[in-house]
Every structure is written in C-alpha cells, then in structure tokens.
Design goal:
By secondary structure, this protein is of the alpha/beta class. The chain has a single domain, classed as P-loop containing nucleotide triphosphate hydrolases (Rossmann fold), CATH 3.40.50. Helix content is about 35%, strand content about 25%. The chain is built from 7 helices and 10 strands. The strands form 2 sheets. Strands 6-7-8-3-9-10 form a 6-stranded mixed β-sheet, sandwiched between helices. A 4-stranded antiparallel β-sheet has the order 2-1-4-5, covered by helices on one side. Strand 4 and strand 5 form a beta hairpin. The radius of gyration is 17 Å and the shape is globular. The two termini are about 25 Å apart. About 40% of the residues are buried.
Length: about 220
C-alpha cells in the first residue's frame, strides 16, 4: 500500500532530512516511525501525504507514484488519507462540529449525510457533547481528539499522525492511543511518527527506527 524506494529529501541549503530510505507498509498495518526529534519522521509522513516531494527516489501510495502526480491530483489522493498534525491546524473561529464538517464540505458530501458523519466522528472520540464549542475552550487533549475526528470523518484508508501524544499527559496519551487502535482494528492503515516509547509498548505496532534521516532498523513488534 505504501512503499518508499531509495528516497532522499534534500532542502535548500543542503540539509537531507531523509537519506536513501526504503520501506514498505502493508494495508491494515499499524506502524510507528520511532526516533528522536529531527530524525526525519515528520518528513517521511509529509512525503507519504505528498505535502513534500522527494528529491530522489520513489514514493508509491495505493499504486500511485507520488513523484509523477500533478498538483491538481493531490487533493484526490488525500481523500484516502487522514492527517493528524502536531499543531492541530484547527480553525479557531469555527465550532468543533464545523471543524469536523470541513473535509466533507470540501469533498461535496450531501449536507445531511455530512452532518450525520460528523456527529458520528465526534461521538467516536468522546466529543459529541462539545459540538458547539470553539476549539479554544477545549483542553489540549480534547483538541487532539477533535483533530482525530476531523481526520477520520471521511473514513480514510490510511491515517497518518505526527507526534499525536507529544503534548499530552500519560492518561490522555493512553486515550489517544486507544483511538488509533480502534481505527486500525476496523481496517485503517495507521502510521504514527513518535518518540513515545510507552505508547509503542501499549499498542505493539511494527516499529521502524529512524536516525539522522536513515531508516536503520526494522524492529519487531513491541512486547
């Protein structure tokens, strides 16, 4: 489903965030990209989501070579992806419900069907009672759950998350982890960039270690 072959990402100035990386992720897997801050985890996710293009090498998602995709085709690719960012990227002038509705509005869903899906997604993450709340009134953990609801409302085949528990205490981190487990159990491919060892131990995903932009080790699932 996702394959990177000899992928390098070089930024202006010569910094190589990813160096000759080769890895594959099968449909329905849960995979953690593990490594320290600056190791290249976030860049790998951006390459998979076509937010960044590789300097060299090939990135294939769902049979599509992302290096050859035209810009106008990228939104269609992302209809099969759910993206959870570190900084949430929520719209703070819109309610929780309106934030979750946004991807469905963009994709042209019928208003009634979109509203039903949005409320189901909010319910899944435990925020149905907060649908009228502005994001600024929510806790950090609730904002993260709102971000996840928005990412999964269109039922993507692939869910990508960048340090989803990085700013959360242990209890909230455990709750977020269980949400990802639930989505994976119903068939979503889940790829998480993190350095949260406790989360890896709890969810027992396949681990891919990244250091200085290199995919160094394909680790066994956590115990």
């Amino acid at each position: 489903m996702i394959a990177l072959t000899n992928v390098t990402k070089r930024y202006p100035g010569g910094h190589e965030a990813v160096k000759n990386a080769t890895l594959s992720i099968e449909r329905g897997e849960m995979v953690f990209l593990m490594g320290h801050s600056g190791a290249g985890k976030s860049t790998l996710l951006k390459l998979i989501a076509a937010i960044e293009r590789p300097t060299s090498g090939k990135v294939v998602v769902n049979g599509q070579n992302l290096g050859s995709l035209r810009a106008r085709a990228i939104p269609y690719l992302r209809r099969n992806l759910g993206l959870v960012f570190q900084d949430h990227k929520l719209l703070f002038d819109r309610s929780a419900f309106e934030n979750v509705m946004l991807p469905l509005n963009i994709q042209g869903y019928d208003r009634r069907d979109a509203a039903r899906r949005a409320r189901a997604a909010l319910d899944k993450v435990g925020l149905l009672g907060h649908e009228k709340a502005l994001p600024v009134t929510l806790s950090c953990g609730e904002q993260q759950r709102l971000c996840i609801a928005r990412a999964v409302v269109h039922r993507p085949a692939v869910l990508l998350a960048d340090e989803p528990t990085g700013n959360l205490d242990a209890a909230y981190a455990a709750e977020i982890g269980e949400l990802f487990r639930a989505f994976n159990q119903v068939g979503a491919t889940v790829v998480i960039a993190t350095h949260d060892v406790q989360l890896a131990e709890r969810l027992a995903p396949r681990l891919i270690a990244i250091a200085s932009g290199r995919v160094d080790t394909l680790a066994a699932a956590a115990a």
